[in-house]
Structure formats: structure tokens, C-alpha cells
Design goal:
By secondary structure, the chain is mainly α. It contains 40 helices and four strands. It has a domain of 127 residues: Alpha Horseshoe (Serine Threonine Protein Phosphatase 5, Tetratricopeptide repeat), CATH 1.25.40. Strands 1-4-3-2 form a four-stranded mixed β-sheet.
Length: 753
């Protein structure tokens, strides 16, 4: 008689059948098995193990006995290749039963039970996704639990550390849905040992692309691909045209994106066809489609507004989704669509009542959301000890969410030490934003620093897709002359929509670094794509730089003016600064100081950091009088006060290397470099400056140490790109001076490093 593997209640460990005739199989340690698999498994062989489905005719519930008998060796090889796969182990069990091999069936059931118990132990709102090898493992676990798979939906359009897959299973006995979240992208990333992008976030993106672009992709993949394609398209109407077919096919993620795209205030046509798309599944009383239909009624999305119908539908969804799961998900949706839900708590009264009931019934999300609002409210009230204990609990920190909110709380309460303590706990638990924030504190913060730990968390945050961390690693790679690596760190941030990363990528391409796939012409395309939106000023300044230098296009000063003038005439300070500097240095033809000052006056009057710093440099190098140099130092200080870090370098360099007695001031230089961060974290020009200041102050030992480090860096760069050789020669000359107990005097205009 066929054994039923799992009970519909999902309490697998308590419902395994026992036999008196067969000795108990040895215990199987699922956690250790996973640890060993991640350490030694191979992606190709592990994924190949899933081919056993076709080999034995597995249809989700049964296998072909004759095929099982013929392919015992294939089954054994699949188990060896993917020993932690729930799918493979389920097939091994079903085949053992089909050929009446009771000993093998008992053994495989024991393993399957341990793996399933371990998987289900990871489930929960504030936990990481359940780790599996492939999507088929997720549906196999749900099916083996005696549940009917209702839907399979990817949660996010692009991976962070994970690419969550939500499988909804229907328990026909209890009349409830179980929403379980899985991830296999991180598993694939861990065992992709031979991939060229191993260790890079870019590999996760590539793995996802291979999944969603497969020619035989499942609905879940076609669904999330529609969302991805929609986000890569401009215009609401055009984006909806991409989403509608997938939503009509039953793609719930496309339907959710449709709601989010139309926003809190739907237009007259935005909701056209929405109800028809979600109604079939809502009529089957599936919780998420009913929830989406409830939102449509509440907001009038493709249907007349009907609040009573909305709350009726939401309550029906809650009856299907245990512990107020639908209310929690509806609240997440509501908060994502309203600009400032925290300050004014504008959640509808009827929804707030449901949230209050959820809190009373022990729903962790509802309580967390109430505390989040409390923490971030303008009144900044104190939390009760019970609330702090709740946010610190294991149940709230499978992914560090509770600790992350506590870090915000201590920050708002002006308790920096407590903030850092819990921020570290959130980072250790895997909370990506906290990892990036904690890394910054460890590298640059005012408290105790730890460069090694900071670098570790930068890397971890980058693996989670955090844009600052990815840009930071790209900067580090560029500093070391590893420009192809810098490109690879930037690309995932660009794919995630980070505009700063897109500008950084454009600047990398414009520089024409060796080994980088993008070219200067690609930089032009990037900046042109940004030239008429919210980032028009920055993009047009970049285009003007490229036009005056002839990068990615023919040298064309008049084209540079055409890029700058429209935004400069509207009062943009960056564009005005670039115009002024262009006339000062002759970028647009002859030098014209009168025109330069007409454009520079507005940003200088506004104490614009870039204008102050750049004009200060021009005065210092071209003014040729003590008065001009004094004005230069005043402008540099003004720029530094405005947050322009480069201005510190200008002050320090001039103070420590000037040939002019009125400017040479090593004491001022040392005081300035003290504000420029720990020397080993500085860029090469800044490191060169710090060494020069120590030499000017008479500390030649420290100057030699730092200049030797600068020489090591620049020599490494010169090997990869010859135009660094001149720079290396200058750095080497200064090192020789410091070793001879002499400071460096800049007798000519300083050339940029």
C-alpha cells in the first residue's frame, strides 16, 4: 500500500508511517547535508539530476514503475548529484515503492522527511526564503505535503541576494492556503564554481536571466519576465501593454505590477481589463487574486469604487490565508502605493481595524508594522520593553528585520552606541540595507573603525544588490586598475535602476579603460538617455565634457554649448559652473574671462561647492598675486564647508607644496589632511597629498611610508595602462625627496593625478 509522505497540516515529522518489520533508518542530518552540498556541489551536475523526472515519467504525484526498474542507476546518480533535492529524493522514494523495494523506500522516506522538516523550519514572514536547488524542489515539497499547488510566483523582478519564489498550496482538509517562499538562485550561485563571474553579483543576474528567458519557461517565468520588460519600457500605456497579456494568462506578479503602476489614484483607462484578468482566480476564491480585486474595488481600478465589496473580498481572502495573511499582504500593497503612510497614518479606518485584530491574534507583521509607524512618527515616542524584546526576538530576525528597525529607533532616540550594536546584529543576520550602513560606519564613521569587517559587509551588501555597496566595490576596483571588474560591479546596480551607478558606468566608458566592454560611444548613449529628465544637468555636463574632448564623438565645442545652455539659462548651478570654467580654460574657443565670470557669479554667490573649488583652483594657478591666492584658499574652504571633499585636497596640496611664502603653511596642511579620512582609504591623488604634507611638516618617516604606498598603487596602474607612467615618475621623484629629508615644492601648475 502506498504511503502518504506528508500530512496536509505540514507537520511532517509527526505523521510519517512506521512499520514493525523494517528497522529504523539511520538519522539524516539535513543541515549538515546542505552545508556539505554547498561546499562541494557542482551546478551542472546538480541541475542535471532533475532530468530524472522525465526518465521515470514523474508527473508531480506518481512515477512509471517499469521506467523506475530500468533506470535504477540513473536514479542513484541523481541522488548522488543532488542529495538535498526534495524533488530527487521524492522520486527516489516513489520509485522504490513502485518496484516494492521496502528498505529503499523507508530509507528515502527518512531522508525526505528530514529535508522537508528542515525546509519548513525556515518558513516565515521574517525569515530568509527556504533554500532549494531548483523551482521543482519547491513544488515537490508542496505536492508531497498533500497540498494542491495553486500558484507559483516570483516575488521580485530582479535578484537581490535571493530571487524569492512564492508557492501557494491549498489544504483541502483545513480549507486554507499555505504561502511558502523559496529561493534557488543563491544555491545556484554558491555551487556555480566554474562560472567566469563567480563571486560577483552579476552572476546572480545572469542566473535569473537564464531562468526567465528559457524557451520553455513556465508561467511564473513568463510572468516575471513581463514585469522586467515593463520596467525597462517608458510610458504607462506601453508598460501596461506588456503586462496585460501575462496578467490575463494568470500571472499574479504582472497583476500586482499593474496595480502598482496605476498607483493610488488610477486614471480613467489605467484599469481597463484588470478585473477580467484577476476575476477567474478570484472566483476560485484564491486569496491573492481576491486581495487584488479588493484593492481594485477600494480604489476604483477598472471598476466602480465599492468599499463594502472591497472589505468583503479581503475578509474572504483572510479566511483562506491563515493568521490574517491577506490583511498583512493588502497592507504591504497599500503602503507601497502611498507617499507618506508613516507620518499621517492614512491607512483606511476599516483596514486599521483589521490590522488591530491581526495584532491581537499574534500576527507578527501587523505588530511590526504598528511598531514601525510608532518608531518613525514625528513624536519619536519611547518603545516599551516588551516591544524591544519582540523586535529582538529570533522570530523577527531570520533576515535581521527586527534589529534593523531597532537601529532606526536608537538613531532617532539619539542613542548612537545602542544603534551600532543592533545595526551590527541586523547586518550579521543578513539585512542588506543594514549591512551597507554598518559597513559605512566601520569604514568612515565617527566611532571605532574596523576596515576588514567593513569590507566584509560591503561585499555582503553588494551580494544583496545594494547600490552603494556595488558602487563602492567598483570604486575600489578602479582604484586598483581593475576596470573590467569595476564594470561588472556596476552593472547589477544599473540593472536595478540606480542612476548614480549608471553615471559611474558612463564615466568609466568615457575614460576608455582597457579591458572594459563598453566604449566611449556607449557613454554618449548613456548620458543622452538622461539628458532630458530629472538628471538632465549632470548628463549634459558630462556630454559637454565629451564634446570638448572629442570622446565618443567628434570634438565639437559648439555642441558642448548646446548641451549646457538650455539648463544653464534655467538657473542650473552645475551647468553654469561648467560654462564658466569652459570660458576660463578656452574649451569653447578663445579664453573669455568676462563671459566666464557672468556664468560663474550665480553659483559663486550661492556658495556652490564645485564652483567655489574650481574657481579657487583657477585663481591659485593663474592669479599670481598673494591676494588671488588668499581668495583661492577662502573659496576652497567655502567649498569644503559645502561638502565638496576635493576642496580639502586642494587646500592641503597648496599649503604643503606651494613655492609662495604667503601660501606655504604645513600646519594648515596637516590640520586639513586630518579631515580627509584614514590615508589608506584615500584615492591616489589624495594619498600623494597627505604624504606631501607630512614631509612639509618634517615627518619624513610617515611621508616615505605613505608615498611608498602611492608608488605601489601607481606602478600597478602603469602596468595596465601606459598613461600612468608619467604619474608614476612624479610619485617616484617625490619619494626620493622624502627619503632625502626634503619636502616637495610645486614650482609649476600642478598636473592632475
Amino acid at each position: 500500500m502506498t504511503r502518504r509522505l506528508l500530512c496536509t497540516s505540514l507537520l511532517l515529522a509527526l505523521c510519517l508511517p512506521a512499520t514493525a518489520a523494517t528497522p529504523a533508518a539511520p538519522a539524516f542530518d539535513a543541515a549538515s547535508a546542505w552545508q556539505q552540498f554547498l561546499a562541494k556541489g557542482e551546478l551542472g551536475t546538480a541541475i542535471g539530476a532533475f532530468d530524472v523526472m522525465d526518465t521515470v515519467g514523474y508527473d508531480g504525484s506518481q512515477v512509471n514503475a517499469e521506467a523506475c526498474a530500468q533506470h535504477r542507476d540513473d536514479i542513484a546518480r541523481s541522488v548522488a548529484a543532488a542529495p538535498v533535492s526534495i524533488l530527487v529524493r521524492r522520486i527516489a522514494y516513489l520509485c522504490a515503492e513502485a518496484v516494492a523495494d521496502d528498505a529503499a523506500a523507508e530509507r528515502e522516506m527518512t531522508v525526505l522527511a528530514a529535508l522537508s522538516r528542515y525546509a519548513l523550519g525556515q518558513a516565515g514572514d521574517f525569515n530568509k526564503p527556504i533554500r532549494v536547488i531548483g523551482a521543482a524542489d519547491a513544488t515537490a515539497l508542496v505536492a508531497a505535503s498533500g497540498l494542491q499547488v495553486l500558484s507559483v510566483t516570483y516575488q521580485w523582478p530582479r535578484p537581490e541576494r535571493y530571487f524569492p519564489l512564492v508557492v501557494v498550496g491549498w489544504d483541502s482538509d483545513a480549507k486554507v492556503e499555505h504561502h511558502l517562499t523559496f529561493d534557488y538562485i543563491d544555491t545556484m550561485y554558491q555551487i556555480a564554481r566554474e562560472e567566469p563571474n563567480k563571486g560577483l553579483t552579476l552572476l546572480r543576474n545572469g542566473l535569473v536571466v537564464s531562468v526567465v528567458s528559457s524557451v520553455d519557461a513556465e508561467l511564473s517565468a513568463r510572468d516575471i519576465k513581463a514585469v522586467r520588460d515593463s520596467r525597462d519600457t517608458d510610458g504607462v500605456a506601453q508598460r501596461l501593454e506588456i503586462l496585460r497579456p501575462a496578467a490575463r494568462e494568470g500571472g499574479l506578479r504582472s497583476a500586482l505590477e499593474w496595480v502598482q503602476l496605476c498607483g493610488a489614484k488610477p486614471t480613467a483607462t489605467c484599469g481597463d481589463g484588470f478585473v477580467d484578468a484577476v476575476l477567474p482566480r478570484a472566483e476560485q476564491q484564491q486569496a491573492l487574486p481576491m486581495l487584488l480585486l479588493a484593492y481594485a474595488y477600494l480604489q476604483g481600478l477598472g471598476v466602480e469604487r465599492d468599499e463594502a465589496a472591497a472589505w468583503t473580498l479581503l475578509d474572504a481572502a483572510d479566511r483562506r490565508w491563515p493568521n490574517h495573511g491577506a490583511t498583512a499582504e493588502f497592507t504591504r500593497l497599500w503602503l507601497s502605493l502611498h507617499d507618506d503612510p508613516i507620518a499621517n497614518a492614512d491607512v483606511p479606518v476599516a483596514l486599521q481595524k483589521r490590522l488591530d485584530r491581526a495584532v491581537a491574534d499574534g500576527n507578527r507583521f501587523a505588530r511590526y508594522e504598528a511598531l514601525r509607524r510608532k518608531v518613525l512618527s514625528p513624536a519619536k515616542p519611547k518603545l516599551e520593553a516588551a516591544d524591544i524584546a519582540f523586535l529582538s526576538s529570533t522570530a523577527m530576525n531570520g533576515n535581521g528585520t527586527g534589529f534593523a528597525l531597532l537601529a532606526d529607533y536608537h538613531d532617532l532616540q539619539a542613542e548612537p552606541q545602542l544603534r551600532l550594536q543592533v545595526l551590527g546584529k541586523a547586518a550579521e543576520a543578513g539585512h542588506v540595507k543594514s549591512q551597507a550602513t554598518y559597513a559605512w560606519e566601520l569604514l568612515y564613521g565617527s566611532g571605532a573603525r574596523d576596515a576588514e569587517l567593513g569590507k566584509r559587509y560591503v561585499f555582503e551588501a553588494a551580494q544583496g544588490g545594494h547600490p552603494w555597496a556595488l558602487r563602492h566595490l567598483a570604486d575600489d576596483s578602479s582604484r586598483e586598475g581593475q576596470w573590467p571588474l569595476a564594470e561588472k560591479w556596476l552593472l547589477p546596480a544599473v540593472y536595478g535602476g540606480d542612476v548614480d551607478a549608471l553615471f559611474d558606468l558612463g564615466e568609466l566608458y568615457a575614460a576608455g579603460r582597457p579591458g572594459v566592454e563598453g566604449k566611449a560611444s556607449n557613454a554618449v548613449d548613456i548620458f543622452k538617455s538622461l539628458a532630458d529628465g530629472d538628471y538632465a544637468s549632470r548628463a549634459r555636463v558630462s556630454l559637454a565634457d565629451m564634446a570638448t574632448q572629442g570622446l565618443g564623438m567628434k570634438k565639437n565645442p559648439q555642441q558642448a554649448l548646446q548641451w549646457l545652455l538650455p539648463v544653464a539659462e534655467k538657473g542650473d548651478l552645475d551647468a553654469q559652473t561648467r560654462l564658466g570654467l569652459g570660458y576660463l580654460y578656452g574649451d569653447f574657443g578663445k579664453v573669455d574671462e568676462a563671459k566666464a565670470m557672468r556664468w560663474l557669479q550665480p553659483p559663486l554667490a550661492a556658495k556652490h561647492g564645485w564652483a567655489s573649488s574650481a574657481y579657487g583652483s583657477w585663481l591659485y594657478h593663474h592669479g599670481q598675486t598673494p591676494k588671488a591666492r588668499a581668495q583661492a584658499f577662502a573659496l576652497w574652504q567655502q567649498s569644503a564647508d559645502a561638502g565638496t571633499s576635493d576642496a580639502y585636497n586642494e587646500i592641503a596640496w597648496a599649503s604643503c607644496t606651494s613655492p609662495y611664502p604667503d601660501a606655504f603653511d604645513p600646519k594648515r596642511g596637516i590640520q586639513t589632511v586630518a579631515k580627509m579620512d584614514e590615508p589608506t582609504l584615500l584615492d591616489l591623488p589624495e594619498l600623494d597629498t597627505v604624504a606631501a604634507c607630512y614631509a612639509a611638516a618634517g615627518d619624513f618617516k610617515r611621508a616615505v611610508e605613505l608615498q611608498a604606498l602611492a608608488l605601489e598603487r601607481v606602478d600597478a596602474l602603469a602596468v595596465k595602462q601606459p598613461d600612468y607612467k608619467e604619474m608614476a615618475a612624479r610619485v617616484r621623484e617625490r619619494l626620493a625627496l622624502y627619503r632625502a629629508d626634503r619636502h616637495y615644492v610645486d614650482e609649476e601648475d600642478r598636473k592632475s593625478l
